[in-house]
Amino acid sequence: MNEFLRKKWEMAGLADDYIFNKVMLDYDICLEVLRRILPDLHIKKIKLPNNQQEFAVAPDAKAVRFDIYTTDEQGNHYDIEMQVADHHNIAKRIRYYQTASSMEAYDKGQPYEQADDSYVIFFCNFDPFQLGQQRYVLHKHIDEIPEQIIEDGQTDILFNVPSLRHDVDPKMQAFLDMIAQRKVEATDPLVVKLKERIAVVKRNRKWRSEYMRRSVYEMDQEMREKKIREGERKIRDGKRELLEGKRELQKGKRELQKGKREIKEGQDRLKEKEQLIQEREQKLHENQQTIIKTSILVMRELNIDETTIRKEIKEKFNLSDKKIKDYFAE
């Protein structure tokens, strides 16, 4: 573990949020970075940068801890963040950071129009909106008139550090290249200062120890979160399997009901056929009785003797003696 952390510390650059914070605490570097991000503001000086400054918009609200926070001579507020991992919540994350920063821009009793401007700046080691831009500048606008920007003093700026579009000016590109550890022009004064500052940070034993403790904590936290996510996934899988089991059970019940209906329908059809056969047999029996009786009457009218008639009827219709007796008893 120690060897792993040692190598991690040695390899860490500006894309590591801890290194980024310690480097950006340097007054001259922070001022120059802000000037490159916002050249139109012509920033002359800033307050000494403060890292890990915490704000809460209400006592019971979630607190926000800024990576680098400062203000300039005009009272503009700046929050500079290094976002290493994409947690897919960047838009709402910016919203909360901007809310906390904006609260500092409103002094008690001050008219709203005198509120200071607030800038939230994110350097992302990924494309924050997956739209392929190198820089995203966000303002409020009117939906019905998209080009109409609402000048509320809030500006959000996000940089897609891995992007190779080079849509920003060369000076800003040099800083992004430093973060991404790409080849940079060694004569750029900011690049020189950044390299010197990174070396100073790496030599600081206190910061090195703090970095390793934090890394251990983050790895433990990541492991705990991983176990929690794994547990949640198993619960979701279990619920899904339970739901699928219930659906299969319902399907089985429906198929059973369907089978029962089909059996009943088959039984009903069988009964109908049996009844039809019985009716046909009854009809045949009745027809046979009529024919036999008619035959007896005809032979009697022909004056044929009873013995001959009995014999003729018995043989022709294959009747038993009992049935012959019944016919001649009528």
Radius of gyration: 47 Å
Mean pLDDT across all amino acids: 87
* Largest beta sheet: strand ordering: 1-2-3-4-8-5
Largest sheet: 6 strands, mixed
The global form is rod-shaped
Structural class: alpha/beta
Beta-strand content bin: 5-15%
Q: Tell me the number of strands.
A: 8
- The stretches of 5 or more residues where confidence is low (pLDDT under 50) are none
Relative helix content: 55-70%
Q: Report the end-to-end length measured between terminal Cα atoms.
A: 117 Å
SS summary, helix count: 9
Order of helices and strands: HHHEEEHEEEEEHHHHH
Protein architecture, described:
The chain is an alpha/beta fold. The protein is built from 9 helices and 8 strands. It has helices at residues 2-11, 17-24, 27-37, 90-104, 170-179, 189-203, 205-301, 306-317, 321-329, and strands at residues 50-55, 64-71, 77-83, 118-124, 135-138, 141-142, 145-149, 154-160. A 6-stranded mixed beta sheet has the order 1-2-3-4-8-5, with helices on both faces. It has a two-stranded antiparallel ribbon with strand order 6-7. Helix 1 (2-11) packs across helix 7. The longest helix has 97 residues, at 205-301.
